[in-house]
Amino acid sequence: MSSTTPHHDAEDPPQLQFKDGKLMATFNPRQLNVIWGRDPRYWKMPEKNSSGPAELLQVCWLEVSGSVPIRSSAPSGTKFKITFQVSFKSDAFGWNNCPVYVMAKFGKKGKYTWTKISLRTDNSQPTNILPPDGLEIVTKDATTPNVNDTIYFGLYEVWSGKWKGGLELHNAKVEQINNTQ
Question: What is the SS3 assignment for 14?
C-alpha cells in the first residue's frame, strides 16, 4: 500500500547493540523520519539497501528525527551522545546565520536537552556535527511507573523560515558514553 504523506517514515530502525564495549545504534537516512522526505522537490532519499546519503534539495522546514528503545539494556544513569553525520554540496545555500538544533529526550514525556549549532558549508566531506562529544542525554530511573524507555532525538531548523539546500545527511548515531570518559 502506498502512502499519500509527503513525509518519509523511518524504515526498520536499528536497535541498540553492544559494539566495542558500549551500546550503539547507527541510523542510515532511510531509518530516520524526514519531513518532506517523500517529496522529490525537497529531498532525494537514497534507494533501499543503499549506503548513500539523503540529499536535501530545498526546504524551509528541516526536521529529521529518530528514536531507539533502550529497554533494560541500559541501567539508570547511563549517558548517551547523539550525533549526525552531514556534508554539503558545493552549491549549498541558506545556511548562513541559520542556527540548527540537535535535540533529544528520554521518554515521550521527557524534557528535551538541546544544543544550537552553526553548520559550515565548506564541509564537503562527511563530518559529525557536534564533534567529538555530541549532545548528551542521561537515562532516568526505569523503575518509576509509566516511564517510557525510548530515546527520541532530532535535527531541526524550523524557526527561521529561510530556504536552505545542499545538505547531505549520511547517518545519525546514538552511542553510550563510557563512564570513564
Answer: coil
What are the cell numbers at 177? 558514553
Q: How far is CA 26 from the centre of its chain?
A: 10
Distance CA 55, CA 170 (A): 9
The residues near 38 (Cβ < 8 Å, ≥ 6 apart) are 3, 5, 6, 7, 8, 45
Per-residue CA distances from 132 to 10, 23, 85, 128 (Å): 26, 17, 11, 8
As a residue count, the chain comes to: 181
List, for residues 10-24, the tens digit of each pLDDT value. 999 999 999 988 999
Q: Break the chain into its structural domains and give their ranges.
A: 17-177
Nearest CA-CA partner of 79 in 154, 179, 153: 179
Dump pLDDT digits (tens) for 117-151: 887 777 666 766 654 556 788 776 555 544 568 99
C-alpha cell at 104: 533529544
Q: Is the pTM of this model over 0.85?
A: yes
Superfamily of domain 17-177: Galactose-binding domain-like (2.60.120.260)
Residue 82, C-alpha cell as written in the block: 547523539
